[in-house]
Design brief:
single chain; 450 residues; alpha/beta; Rossmann fold; 3 domains; 4-stranded parallel sheet; 15 helices; 13 strands; binds guanosine-5'-triphosphate; binds magnesium ion; cytoplasm; GTPase HflX; GTP-bd_M
């Protein structure tokens, strides 16, 4: 008996559109390769072709299709009846009704041939079908890969619910009959084909998920509103830029840092260290990626709200990546859509330790306002902390609050949201000289008067 490879093997496929240059095309395929590795597959090759569009029935021209099929062991033609499409994709999604299934165990491949063809573009269900017919392999597109990674990495209840919704919405139009012909079935649901039944189940499940999600979101909105008017800075940016590394260094927390795409899927909030008065809260957020599937943007909701409510956004980029400017644009575009471009921001050029002096100078010339640093250098991190503190210091104002004897219970809140410069007493109660953000002071004043 032949020993079978334990890790699924994948071939990448990319179309280079006329407006995409060679560097961007190579970077996109490279990024797809990293996404695929994050899924636990081995990339064994890639096929790419220059074309005017991605709309062709089998995506590739017939020559390229034959080249791809030679790698995967398929017939190379769409009309062939050879090797019916595998129902693996469908099977993988069948557990979707349950809470995040464990990562699928790698399925053994058939000999050394790749089991997967992974395409760097969003495909229509019929393109997927055609490619599967021609290659005999299972076909996933970029969206499918990202949805699957999100599914595996989601940790909190909110993220899990959101990702399950995105996954069902992705899979519903791609469902097909499991048993070739697609006839009507007897028994429960008689009169409905399997396909109709599956689709109806998905609709019901989506409605259920929507309700649950709304309940969870009411909770987290509540928690967030309790943090309003606090000093908040959010780390935002492309996946793998180093946001979590900076978060760790700035707050001394143990958030996950990994050389993986989408290591972080949940927003975490920690206190800037050494602690200031009032405290500064730092949020680490999920990374962005190009061609983010539309339904998944919803699962960024908590991250996006975090960004929208911060007083300062730090756009973190991996300056050692030749495509960092395009990556920055992706993050800015998503945040602009929700109006977060109104939040004051700074550009943070991370991973400077990977660049030589000349490259650093060139960047300084072009982006004089950007903060250059390495998350791995403690001195750089401490400078960044000072910059953050300085930003809030400049935004703060001084004011006087009178705390009547009947409201002494509010003293803790005052100390939490402002810096108390001095405390005096008069016949009504305490008189505090405070320094804080205008919004926070206004809120305290309302509490004292109400
Ligand atoms: N050389 C170098 N590597 C860094 C630096 N900052 C982060 N890294 C590495 O970059 C990789 C990604 O870092 P993370 O902090 O997980 O990145 P992230 O932005 O949180 O990524 P996602 O959570 O996937 O969005 C890890 O392997 C880090 O060790 C840096 O300043 N220099
Ligand atoms: Mg992270």
């Amino acid at each position: 008996m032949e020993t079978k490879p334990p890790i699924p093997r994948a071939v990448l496929v990319g179309i280079q559109l006329p407006e995409v240059d060679d560097v961007a095309h190579a970077a996109s395929l490279e990024e797809l390769g990293r996404l695929v590795k994050t899924l636990g597959y081995e990339v064994v090759g890639s096929v790419s072709q220059r074309r005017d569009g991605t709309g062709a029935g089998a995506l590739l021209g017939s020559g390229k299709l034959a080249e791809l099929a030679a790698l995967t062991g398929g017939s190379g033609t769409i009309t062939s009846m050879a090797s019916a499409p595998k129902a693996k994709a469908r099977a993988r999604f069948e557990g979707a009704g349950a809470e995040a299934a464990a990562p699928a165990a790698p399925e053994p491949g058939e000999g050394p041939r790749p089991d997967f063809v992974i395409v760097d573009h969003e495909l229509s269900p019929s393109q997927i079908r055609n490619l599967e017919r021609a290659t005999g392999a299972e076909v996933l597109d970029r969206t499918g890969v990202i949805v699957e990674i999100f599914h595996r990495h989601a940790n909190t209840r909110e993220a899990k619910l959101q990702v399950e919704m995105a996954r069902l919405k992705y899979v519903a139009p791609r469902l097909r009959e499991s048993s070739g012909g697609g006839g009507r079935q007897q028994g429960p649901g008689a009169g409905e084909s399997h396909l109709d039944l599956d689709r109806r189940k998905i609709r019901d499940r989506l409605a259920e998920l929507k309700d649950q999600l709304e309940a969870v979101q009411r909770d987290s909105d509540h928690r967030r509103s309790a943090r309003r008017d606090q000093l908040r800075v959010a780390l935002v940016g492309y996946t793998n830029a180093g946001k979590s590394s900076l978060m760790r260094a700035l707050t001394g927390s143990q958030v996950l840092v990994e050389d993986k795409l989408f290591a972080t899927l949940d927003t975490t909030v920690r206190i800037l260290q050494p602690e200031t008065r009032p405290r500064v809260l730092v949020s680490d957020t999920v990374g962005f990626i190009k061609q983010l599937p539309h339904d998944l943007v919803a699962s960024f909701r908590s991250t996006l709200t975090e960004a929208l409510e911060a007083s300062l956004l730090l756009y973190v980029v991996d300056a050692s990546d030749p495509t960092w400017e395009a990556q920055l644009k992706v993050s800015q575009d998503v945040l602009r859509e929700i109006g977060a471009d109104a939040v004051p921001s700074r550009l943070v050029l991370n991973k400077m330790d990977r660049l030589d002096e000349a490259a650093r100078d060139a960047l300084r010339e072009r982006f004089p306002d950007a903060i250059q640093l390495s998350a791995h250098r403690p001195g750089d991190v401490s400078d960044l902390r000072d910059t953050i503190v300085g930003f809030f210091e400049a935004a703060m104002v001084e004011d006087t609050l009178s705390l009547p004897y009947s409201k002494q219970g509010l003293i803790g809140e005052i100390y939490d949201s402002a810096r108390v410069l001095s405390e005096d007493y008069d016949e009504h109660g305490r008189v505090l000289r405070v320094r804080g953000l205008p919004g926070a002071i206004a809120r305290l004043r309302r509490g004292l008067e109400g």
